[in-house]
Protein 1
Amino acid sequence: MSLVRVDIDGLLATLTMTNQPKRNALSEAMINEVLAGLDEALAAKVRCVILRAEPGVKIWSSGHDIQELPKSHRDPLGWSDPLRVVIRAIEEFPAPIIALIEGGVWGGACEVALACDIIVATPDSTFAITPAKLGVPYNVTGLLTFMNAASLHTVKEMAFTARPIDAERALLVGLINHLRQADEITAFCVEMARGIEKLAPLAIAVMKEELRVLASAHSITPRMFERVQGMRRKVYDSTDYEEGVKAFKEKRPPVFLGE
Ligand code: LCV
């Protein structure tokens, strides 16, 4: 069964995540289909992509597939982790990607949505940064995605409380571009895409890459990076990390002991 439907209509590609039984958890298989969809869109020389779930869903995506997180003693968000790969693919795709959001967006899926270029959401959407719920030491470039999408205080509140924020608050803090009702959001996004299609694709592609380079331009010395990586290793080696993943699998609240 395919996990992502790809519809190419002229210069617009729509990628629809269709694994509601698992709440569109970002498994390696799901991510590989998103990557394949982006490759198809690139080959078709599309000028805009819409990334969405099926209309009317309660959960856009429940984030990283927790069943695929390493048990322990291995970075859960290393360079080649599928979530990291798809974030980079979205950021480097040479045309605008519109995230059409309905329902809950959790953890790594929140980063996927925010890595897109334009975010349009329905009023029932929510956005949650969840590493603290699982004991996961989120990675530096992942946190930078969030920092580029909202104020530091907003990111800290979302990361330190792990509580979802609603679409109205997300619009207020600049996390999303537009709020639209469920019965008009698709037409709104398609209309925006059709407008982008009429503009100069080379100019847009180079501005997208310039903005990506500028947004990622933060000086961090090798010593600082190694120090942070050492701190992260203590977390993913911790019993708290194991407890977070285990509690999810056992469908119970985690008990974190800080060790
Ligand atoms: C695997 C799942 C998932 C899932 N993985 O439906 O950002 S970080 O650092 O935290 C990063 C590592 C990350 O992204 O981690 C994942 C963060 N995501 C979450 O914390 C959300 C976890 N999921 C939920 O809280 C609930 O599933 C929501 C609220 C999304 C939906 O609740 P609902 O009652 O509608 P279920 O929980 O019953 O889920 C339906 C099926 O999907 C699986 C879940 O285990 C269940 O499978 P079974 O039917 O086999 O029991 N599922 C949901 N999310 N992230 N599997």
Note: The two ends are 41 Å apart (CA to CA).
Protein 2
Amino acid sequence: MAILKIARMGHPILRRVADPIPLDQIQGGAVQQLIQDMLDTVIEYDGVGLAAPQVHQSVRLVLLCLDPEEGFEVWINPILTPTTKEELVSTEGCLSVPGLRGDVSRPSEITVQAYNHLGEAFERTLEGFPAVVAQHECDHLDGLLYIDKVDTQSLSFLEEFKRFAPMPEEEDGE
Ligand code: ZN
């Protein structure tokens, strides 16, 4: 078990476009170890998602918990495509931007094409909260942070957010 250090906003690795993982390496020791360490890390920090650049690995791999019953899933080399013009505004946080919350508007439905932790290709459509988490995490692979897209007037420290936000927010960070 290894809990990895989280890169915080300002670290250049968060601004790089991450590299694809060659498919023949997915089942190899290095990638499988990274997946295990990222799982330990995201659980330790109580996040709903974690992208490899957030743990100083500039590769296209994310972990997400889209359904608490199902636990975390692994997406490798994901490609997201919005399937609607409709946007959904939700409050986001990020383990790499600790202590802040802010509203971001994103397409409310997307399809993802990616590979799982076994290197199997899949395609899925997601809507609502899972679509938001997916976009937040996959933005990390392109060097983007939610703060780049946030409604700046909604930005809040966590303490003030909990005190003044109209709706209580359960998620702790992505
Ligand atoms: Zn994040």
Note: Helices lie at 29-44, 129-141, 158-164.
